[in-house]
């Protein structure tokens, strides 16, 4: 069994109009090499579900997004993501804005084959007012009303991990695997980029096997892309690239996304991109963030 | 045992006021979103309520809070258990949490906004963060807020442009709920301490910082504030509290949170 694929082969599996979930959280462990490959493709009309960072900002800026399902889009140390902001303020982005936990419930409902999961989260707020598709229902067990958080069924999940084997056993050694396991379980297909491809024996130690958060029968394909989360972090391998994010953020005020895209991404392979940002060794030396 | 300080900053006064919020909370997860809020949570954990749990903002619950800002290379944080983001919901939806956030707008119903402002929802004038976890926080556990610049653009006349939290708006009360289930505690501003325990959950003055007048509060709040018969002066920090604050915040980041870092007692 060998699920290894190239970035190009993965993007070749994606279609216009798909609903795509993206793992990671804000500026942390985003599958950015795959995002760059999508930016260099003709894909369009995507519905994106994410705890968003520059992945969402870039896809919005490039006009790839028809609809965004989000709770926030932020680079943390730069609280407001510039291109997500511009997209919202242009009035041209269809959104489903929900609580962080509602997104988790929607992914779980999809993973479990349920049409919805009841929750009190969202009651009394504009989340239910601005999302007429999210229904509030009576309970068969008490006299309260409940938000019926609908399943967020994904066509595809894209995630970045620290280690994987060619069969699709994926390990996240970072302190938090975020909601990646739920994105994976909510999706028909999951494509993974990994810092390292290892032999199956690497997971034999129980302490290592505990850092595998979904089973390999969810993993459709794996691409070896060390440094592939840049400029987001991939703890413990590297931190996020603060100067690069600052340049990205500044580009929104001067030059626009086209300038950033032309300089770093347009027509570039991942190796060429990494050479432009200082090379893999430099990425691997990016310091861990201090919270 | 405790020595009231004579020389302290307004930021330090606000930290100590916010820390007092947690004294009787028992064993809850306390989250202070923002530098002053985090110092306040740490201060409470190290002094008045050792039952408090805090995270490292990444993935671990700490048995001792991390100092804010850059830490020495040999610093070892005191992890107590893993607490990734998905597990945070498992814990806090039980109600065992008290959060102090820093919203951009607060309205007369105690509803808060961190999502977007102006224009209309489809085309906001200023897009901010998004609702984040505010809807769930507001209906599941205790919440307080900190406002560094008390003014009518924060305490707005109408409803929040995006209502991110459940508050005391009768038109939005869900079926089967009562306002008793909404645990909105206090708002800590550069002018004073407020709560929503006035008549019909109106925001009222709990205490004013030294030298602040009722008129100043009224003029800087976009809606009517309840003025009770007796209003306390916010308690000064103690020397002991200031010493702990200096340990929590060795780089004095607290001095950069309020414009011009004003003194706690106005000149």
TrEMBL record, chain B:
Q: Name one GO molecular function term.
A: transferase activity
Q: Name the domain of life this protein comes from.
A: Bacteria
Q: Which UniProt keywords apply?
A: Transferase
Family matches, as SMART domains: CoA_trans (SM00882)
Q: What is this protein called?
A: Ketoacid CoA transferase
């Amino acid at each position: 069994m060998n699920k290894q694929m190239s970035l190009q082969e993965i993007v070749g599996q994606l279609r216009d109009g798909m609903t795509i979930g993206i793992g990671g959280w804000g500026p942390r462990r985003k599958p950015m090499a795959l995002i760059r490959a999508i930016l260099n493709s003709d894909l369009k009309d995507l519905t994106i579900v994410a705890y968003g960072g520059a992945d969402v900002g870039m896809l919005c800026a490039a006009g790839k997004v028809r609809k965004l399902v989000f709770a926030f889009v932020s680079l943390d140390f730069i609280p407001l993501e510039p291109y997500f902001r511009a997209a919202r303020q242009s009035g041209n982005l269809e959104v489903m804005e929900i609580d962080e936990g509602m997104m988790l419930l929607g992914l779980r409902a999809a993973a479990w084959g349920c049409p919805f999961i009841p929750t009190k989260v969202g009651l009394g707020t504009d989340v239910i007012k601005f999302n007429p598709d999210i229904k509030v229902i009576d309970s068969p067990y008490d006299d309260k009303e409940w938000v019926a958080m609908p399943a967020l069924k994904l066509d595809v999940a894209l995630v970045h991990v620290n280690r994987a084997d060619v069969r699709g056993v994926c390990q996240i050694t970072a302190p938090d695997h975020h909601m990646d396991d739920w994105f994976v379980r909510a999706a028909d297909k999951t494509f993974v980029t990994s810092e390292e491809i290892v032999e199956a024996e690497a997971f034999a130690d129980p302490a290592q096997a505990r850092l595998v958060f979904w089973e390999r029968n969810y993993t459709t394909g794996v691409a070896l892309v060390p440094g592939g989360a840049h400029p987001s972090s991939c703890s413990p391998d590297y931190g996020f690239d603060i100067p690069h994010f600052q340049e990205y953020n500044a580009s929104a005020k001067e030059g626009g996304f086209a300038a950033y895209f032309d300089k770093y991404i347009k027509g570039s392979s991942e190796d060429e991109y990494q050479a432009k940002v200082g090379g893999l060794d430099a990425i691997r030396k990016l310091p861990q963030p201090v919270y | 045992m405790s020595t009231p300080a004579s020389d302290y900053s307004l930021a330090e006064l606000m930290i100590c006021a916010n820390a007092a919020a947690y004294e009787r909370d028992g064993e809850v997860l306390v989250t202070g979103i923002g530098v002053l809020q985090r110092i306040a949570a740490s201060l409470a954990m190290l002094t008045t309520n050792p039952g408090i749990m805090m995270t490292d903002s990444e993935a671990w619950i700490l048995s001792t809070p991390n100092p804010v800002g850059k830490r020495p290379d040999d610093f070892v944080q005191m992890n107590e258990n893993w607490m990734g983001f998905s597990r945070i919901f498992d814990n806090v939806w039980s109600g065992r949490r008290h959060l102090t956030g820093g919203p951009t707008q607060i309205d007369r119903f105690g509803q808060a906004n961190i999502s977007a402002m102006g224009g209309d929802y489809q085309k906001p004038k200023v897009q901010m963060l998004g609702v984040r976890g505010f809807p769930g926080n507001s209906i599941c556990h205790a919440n307080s807020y900190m406002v560094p610049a008390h003014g009518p653009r924060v305490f707005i006349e109408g409803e929040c442009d995006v209502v991110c939290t459940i508050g005391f708006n009768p038109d939005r009360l869900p079926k089967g709920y009562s306002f008793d289930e909404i645990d909105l505690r206090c708002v800590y501003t550069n002018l004073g301490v407020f709560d929503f325990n006035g008549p019909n959950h109106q925001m009222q003055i709990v205490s004013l910082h030294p030298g602040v007048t009722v008129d100043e509060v009224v003029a800087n709040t976009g809606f009517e504030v309840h003025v009770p018969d007796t209003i306390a002066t916010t308690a000064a920090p103690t020397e002991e509290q200031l010493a702990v604050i200096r340990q929590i915040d060795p780089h004095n980041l607290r001095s950069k949170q309020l414009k011009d870092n004003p003194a706690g007692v106005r000149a």
